[in-house]
Amino acid sequence: MIRDNPVKNVLAAGGRAFGAMVFEFFSPGLPQICLNAGAEFVLFDMEHTGLGFETLKTQFALCRGLSIVPMVRVPRGEYHFIARALDLGAMGVMVPMVGSAEEAAHIVACTRYPPTGRRGAAFGFAHDDYGDGDIRAKIAALHARTMVIPQIETAEGLANVEAIAAVAGVDALWLGHFDLTNFLGIPGGFQEPQYLRAVDRIVAACNAHGKAAAFIATDETWAREYAAKGFRLFAFGIDQLLLQNALRQGLAVLRATAR
Question: Do 180 and 195 form a contact (C-beta atoms < 8 A)?
Fold first, then answer.
């Protein structure tokens, strides 16, 4: 049996899903800790962190047997990143800086086996839990569970967002808010009309094509604002900042007691 992806199923039905994005703390207990906190998925970052495939494979293995969906942001939309991450057990792949429908279609093809895609065959490996079984049934199940999440975070991606959202096999579009403001020439301008129009355009493209708009909210204000805008797939916080902020608050309490 191939594990399914309840996050993909919920989003396809028009619902919402919530989880964690992990940049720093790739510890053995992390998937269980995230699950205990209520996360439905954990998304590991390879773009900015130095995370390698060996560590990623271990983290995916630690998700095995838990009701949490393992996903990854690969460094770029190249076959050797995408296919390897899937073979290790990723149930979803986020790809940064997607600029066109053609690029999105290439990414989808890297996640699908022939004749619909170009993914190389390897069965009885981590992605199918080292099990045996009918190969055609496995392929169908793997196609059904795999999420494809292009990031819209460049001027080119924004200009082509409707076409990207229309690509078959794309499940969600993830707003890369910091990079988008940089590419629009308004670094950190999250209240600038140009940026706010871009956000609305991304959500509208998702809604028009039955895809989920996705976002990482780093505090309650961001979470409430972007939920109100129509985003349906959310990660909350950045792991090192969550620890840092909690520790800062606790240390402030301790110092206050010593006065």
Answer: yes
* b/e sequence 70-90, b meaning 16+ C-beta within 10 Å: bbbbbeebeeebbbbbbbbbb
Query: What helix, strand, coil percent values describe the chain, rounded to 5?
Result: 45, 15, 40
| The overall pTM is greater than 0.90 | yes
What are the pLDDT digits (tens) for 13-42? 999 999 999 999 999 999 999 999 999 999
- Round to whole Å and give the CA distance between 249 and 259: 16
Question: How much is the pLDDT for 99?
Answer: 98
**What dihedral angle (degrees, nearest 10) is formed by the CA atoms of 93, 121, 59, 149?**
0
Average pLDDT, the chain: 97
pLDDT of 175 above 90:
yes
Give the pairing of strands 17-22 and 41-45: parallel
48 a catalytic residue: yes
Residue 50's φ and ψ, nearest 5 degrees, are: 85, 5
pLDDT score recorded for residue 57: 98
Q: Which helix (H) or strand (E) holds 243?
A: helix 239-257
Cα atoms in the 13 Å half-sphere on the side-chain side of 198: 30
